[in-house]
């Protein structure tokens, strides 16, 4: 059974940093586009960052641009989300997803992603 797993969530003070990792079992993650999503209480899940394959550039939504960055670690077979300068409004459950038909603006749409992790909680609070 294919599984995606997020790790690295936790409690951090405003201005702090966290690094989330997305790994997979029974899936060659390096061959898939990987998206990071966030769901805050009372709202839907939204796309925040994207790691394409090959030469496709990374993508970020405006609210995290300049603070978050994605990277692939092929040795660990993971896709990491480095989150810096965290704000209370970054609090939520963070999910990673893997897919193929997610080019252009398609990455924003949840239905285009094939596999999802269970999520990891990130809480930004004093």
Structural write-up:
The chain is mostly beta strands. The protein is 0% helix and 47% strand. Strands 2, 4, 5, 6, 9, 10 and 11 form a seven-stranded mixed sheet that branches. It has a four-stranded antiparallel sheet with strand order 1-3-8-7, with no helix packed on it. It is globular, with a radius of gyration of 13 Å. It starts with a strand and ends with a strand. The mean pLDDT is 95.
The major sheet is characterized as:
7 strands, mixed
Taking all residues together, what is the mean pLDDT? 95
Please mark out the parts with pLDDT under 50 across 5 or more consecutive residues, or reply none: none
Helix content: under 10%
Radius of gyration: 13 Å
What fraction strand?
Answer: over 45%
Tell the overall outline.
globular
Distance between the termini: 40 Å
Number of strands: 11
Please tag this protein with its features.
126 residues; 7-stranded mixed sheet; 0% helix; 47% strand
Task: Write a brief caption for the model.
With 126 residues, the chain is mostly beta strands.
List the helices and strands and how they pair.
Blueprint: E1 3-7, E2 10-12, E3 18-25, E4 33-39, E5 45-51, E6 59-60, E7 68-73, E8 78-83, E9 92-99, E10 115-116, E11 120-124
Parallel strand pairs: 2-11
Antiparallel strand pairs: 1-3, 3-8, 4-5, 4-9, 5-6, 7-8, 9-10, 9-11
């Amino acid at each position: 059974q294919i599984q995606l797993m997020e790790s690295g969530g936790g409690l951090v003070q405003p201005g702090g940093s966290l690094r989330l990792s997305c790994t997979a079992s029974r899936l060659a993650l390096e061959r898939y586009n990987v998206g990071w999503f966030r769901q805050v209480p009372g709202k839907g899940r939204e796309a925040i960052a994207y790691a394409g394959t090959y030469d496709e550039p990374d993508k970020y939504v405006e609210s995290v641009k300049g603070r978050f960055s994605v990277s692939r670690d092929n040795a660990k077979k993971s896709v990491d989300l480095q989150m810096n300068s965290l704000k209370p409004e970054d609090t939520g459950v963070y999910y990673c997803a893997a897919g193929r038909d997610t080019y252009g603006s398609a990455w924003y749409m949840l239905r285009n992603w094939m596999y999802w992790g269970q999520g990891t909680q990130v809480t930004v609070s004093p």
